[in-house]
Predict the 3D structure of the following.
Amino acid sequence: DTAVSQTPKYLVTQMGNDKSIKCEQNLGHDTMYWYKQDSKKFLKIMFSYNNKELIINETVPNRFSPKSPDKAHLNLHINSLELGDSAVYFCASSQEAGEGTQYFGPGTRLLVL
Amino acid sequence: AQSVTQLGSHVSVSEGALVLLRCNYSSSVPPYLFWYVQYPNQGLQLLLKYTTGATLVKGINGFEAEFKKSETSFHLTKPSAHMSDAAEYFCAVSDKADGNKLVFGAGTILRVKS
């Protein structure tokens, strides 16, 4: 069983479209995250949810909207896609307690044309 | 604010040689420190972590790292490189007071020559 899964794995779309990326974790963790890895492989936090509540919201355009229907899922919706949104998006999860080691999904490679 | 600096964006070693990947951090609170590895076109896999206690931590695949508070460093080492170690390695620090978000270094690509 995959601990943290993301769909789709690849996403190619046109500028201006709206798309969603889904993330699910079966680890029973309380906290989930979205990270963006740009073309230079730099990783940066975007959002974090704890028990469906938003706790981290970095400086991200409001075209990006996370949604957490339950604590096992954290989806990322992107409106009006731009060329600069092309990147790999990683979902991760952790327990709130303790050192909060984060476990990452396989990534979603988004290409905006 | 926390930050991580990885010295050397590319490191090349011969198979069987010592691997040393450098990481220095900046943190206003006792840090939690992590090393992750990313193989081409894959996600991030946890190699090892330091939270509290013993400053020399051992991870998977023969890697280890030592937390040195006085040097604000958490360098990653492996005594003998294998071809399969070729990947990109990321050092990260987390701040429990800041939602446990991970702040990553820029990554070091390790190349292993036969």
Q: What stands out?
A: The radius of gyration of chain A is 13 Å.
